[in-house]
Amino acid sequence: MSEYRLEMNGVVKTFPGVKALDHAQLKLRPGTVHALMGENGAGKSTLMKCMFGIYHMDEGEVIYEGQKVDINGPLDALNRGIAMVHQELQPIPERSIGENIYVGRYPVKRLGPIVTIDHDKMYEDAARVLKEVHLNYDPKAKLGTLSVSQMQLVEIAKAVSADCKVLILDEPTSSLTAAEVEALFTIVNELREKGVSIVYISHKMDEILRISDEVTIMRDGQYVGTWSAKELTTDFIITKMVGRELSNLYPKRENVPGEAVFEVEDFTSINPKSFRHATFNVRKGEILGVAGLVGAQRTELMEGLFGLRCHSAGRIIYKGKELKIDQPQDAIRNGIALLTEDRRATGILGVLSIADNVSIASLSQYLIGGIMLDDGKIEKLVRDNVAKLSIKTPSSKTQIQSLSGGNQQKVLISRWLANSPDVFIMDEPTRGIDVGAKYEIYCIIAELAKQGKSIIMISSEMSELIGMADRIMVMCDGRVTGFIDGKDANQENIMALATQFE
Amino acid sequence: MEKTKSFNVKKFMSDNAIILLVLALAIFTGLTTDNFFTGRNFSNLFINMSPRFIIACGVSGCLITKGTDLSAGRQVGLAACLAAMMLQDITYAARMLPWFPDIPWFAALLIVMVIMGIIGAINGCVIAFLKVPPFIATLGMQTIVYGACQIITNNQPLGGFKKSYSNVALGSLGGFPFLAIFAVIVGVYFLFLYNKTRHGKYMYAIGGNESAAQVAGVNVTATIIRIYLLAGMMYGLAGFLVGAKAGGASTATGFGYELEAIAACTIGGVSANGGVGRVSGILVGVLVFEALKICLQFLGVDPAYTFVAQGLVIIIAVALDLRKYLAKK
Q: How far apart are alpha carbons A474 and A296 in whole angstroms?
């Protein structure tokens, strides 16, 4: 037996037109937490999908418990004791928690030739594994009654229930609150003590440095190196991930906030559990950060202001004039833009070209005779934006879905800039974007504020808010719980307001 | 991501499998039968294609926005019957509406298109406001329209058209059949609509990602209603032409046309996943589907088997289209 539970050596995986993995490697010791780090597109998820048998690798070997193995698919992986919690959940909300845990491998009982599902055993077992991960849910309840973060914990229970020896956690904390992250870490620590090897993929440096024993860094599908977590610093990890020095995480801001231009008074959702009595203002040339935990209803509030959700009370006043916003068109007409949180679901028009994606919100500006679109004008708009925001694309006819996250985000920002908005709401503008591109997005935000635009920036990364915002509004459970000046903000005072439950 | 520029023969074959297959079949038919590659046969092909291309253009907007329109065929039938009722010769003894005045054919065409446009708009409203899935909404409408057609025609076939109406289908201008001219006008109109107007861009945006389109300020409801309304008007025009061409109309007219149109669109690259589809593709799709039918007819295949072959082509076309999409994942 070697000192490793599982080794992956010289893994090559090619997709049409791109080499996703180029001799990547990973060596897992028993009873350790092994962090796998890299920018988006570095190949972390691809490598894990090779380990879990979702992808078949072109070259390379997997040595599991001292033997060379060939993993044929997720079921084969599970049977060998390798479990994976995916980044994107695949829940069946209309079925019970127990069924979701045992889907595909239901316990059965036999009545002669008839095979039926043993529901009693399933729910008993489900209750046991839920307890094991400190979850106090009724396994017979519908999964859909849980919040996204609770579903994520159920997903982890599912992995644990497979009695795994290797557990892959792909960005497990992306939708968890601080308390839930603590709960997860307790589970991870218990599993580590039981001798499970855990692969932990995350972008959150503080988590990585806290929970992991070893760190492997990847870049452009290649193996960069493996270090003991104790000897690492955030700067070192970023340098290795990006492959160059990043002197500063945030650009210097030169915006000067002026008078308050956008005011919201007593804005209340029709849904009693959502945002209520929100009152705040944004000044000209100000970056207003919005902090809060998952479920603080920040996104809902912004979507309400933009006319995507209904409100029962409240006023929106822009430059002293009250706005009536019932649908996005009203907001857009009044110079408000919204960069949504979930780029894929509510941002990009995936199969359409960059040109179509940039121009869709401002087509009325390019009409000839009120009917025909002026292709020349549109082409110029796209060319200008591609150059101005340095969007990396082969051509303006390229489908937006083939671009990287950062470039997609820049396309969406140009879509709104084409309307020259005065109030730009950005919901998690750097989510799922790699470190280098994040900096470029920050520069764009800083530049827009300098031009006098009012920016409202929701972010779940506190360091980002502290680094970018002139003022931070904190929300908790649908209410605005306070404001902190950017200079005075720190993790503690933000968290204090973000956890001010009634 | 690197772009692979080199021409991939295998990919080309699988992306255009149906088209290549029918092309091969056409060549085979041409070589083994007489009179296949003749002007008359091609002229027939184009005349047959014309109403079907108009229907396919109509339904394409529904497909591009991830919808469908199963009421297309029955709407064509109703349109043909309505046109027939209005344009029976004044001297024809068995006129269904003896009190109806003698109106010019284009007035009847206009009336038919308005009525079908209203039916289409109802489809659009049910889908856009009531959020009924298009498959169900238009399935219901299909049955309603069929029933309505039986009611107004008393289940009697209609004939005895006035000459000017029949001439719409039989006549030609400078060697081009009138039917083909209608189709060309519709094609040019859709080409313009899909590529040069806001409506077109909004349609593709809704098909690409409805939620994102809404966020970007696209009036999704109005666009969808407009698409189904226009579709209805196209069925009206097509039904008018089908009636003229057949010289008669009955409740059976237009049966199954919706499936032919949807199949033609899919063969022509209108994706069942939405957001993708070009007018040129629709034309190719209609051509391929009609060519298939003519080939089988020339080869003396029993009409019953022809249906089996057409059904297979529809399934294969959609399967190949979805495979393209899956491969990208």
A: 9
**B100-126 pLDDT, tens per residue?**
999 999 999 999 999 999 999 999 999
Rounded Cα distance, B109 and B174, in Å: 23
Among the residue ranges A36-45, A121-130, A184-193, B115-124, the one predicted with the least confidence is A36-45
Beta-carbon pairs below 8 A across chains A and B: 84
The verdict on a CB contact (< 8 Å) between A351 and B275 is: yes
> Which residue among A340, A367, A373 sits closest to B215, beta carbon to beta carbon?
A340
Contact A71, A237 (CB under 8 A): no
Q: Is the ipTM of this complex over 0.95?
A: no
Q: How far is B212 from chain A (nearest CA, A)?
A: 4
Q: Are A343 and A408 in contact (CB under 8 A)?
A: yes
A267 within 8 A of A236, measured Cβ to Cβ: no
Inter-chain residue contact A349 with B275, CB threshold 8 Å: yes
The answer to whether B216 contacts A373, with C-beta atoms less than 8 Å apart, is: no
B274 interaction partners in chain A (CB closer than 8 Å):
351
Candidates A243, A287, A293, A242; CA nearest to A262 is A287
Answer whether A163's CB lies under 8 Å from A10's CB: no
Tell whether B303 lies on the interface with A, counting CB pairs under 8 A. Answer: no
Helix (H) or strand (E) holding A372: strand A372-373
Evaluate whether A449 touches A253 at the Cβ level (below 8 Å). Answer: yes
Tokens of A47: 């490598």
Closest CA to A481 of A469, A470, A497, A494: A497
Are A402 and A348 in contact, with CB atoms under 8 Å apart?
Answer: no
Contact B201 A360 (CB under 8 A): yes
Contact A360 B205 (CB under 8 A): yes
Q: Does A350 contact B208 at a Cβ distance shorter than 8 Å?
A: yes
| DSSP helix, strand, coil percent of chain A (3-state; round to 5) | 35, 25, 35
Which residues are within 8 A (CB) of B136 and not within 5 positions of it... i.e. 6 or more apart? none
Candidates A88, A330, A346: best to mutate against B (most CBs of B within 10 A) is A346
Could A17 and B197 be called an inter-chain contact, meaning their C-beta atoms sit closer than 8 Å? no
Closest chain A residue by Cα to residue B208 = A349
Model pLDDT, residue B329: 43
- The full set of domains in chain B, from first to last, is 19-29+36-328 (1.10.3470)
* A41 half-sphere exposure, CB direction, 13 A CA radius: 17
Q: What is the pLDDT of residues B144-167, one digit of tens each?
A: 999 999 999 999 999 999 999 999
Mode of pairing for the β-strands spanning A18-28 and A6-15:
antiparallel
Residues of B in contact with A358 (CB under 8 A): none
Using 70 as the pLDDT threshold, list the residues of chain B that sit under it: 1-7, 325-329
Chain A hits for B201, Cβ within 8 Å: 356, 359-360, 363, 373
How far apart, in whole angstroms, are the C-alpha atoms of residue B44 and residue B71? 27
Tokens of A100: 């979701």
pLDDT tens-digit series, residues A431-445: 877 777 888 999 999
CA-wise closest residue to A380 among A358, A404, A402, A399: A358
For A483, the enclosing helix (H) or strand (E) is strand A479-485
Rounded to two decimals, the pTM is 0.81
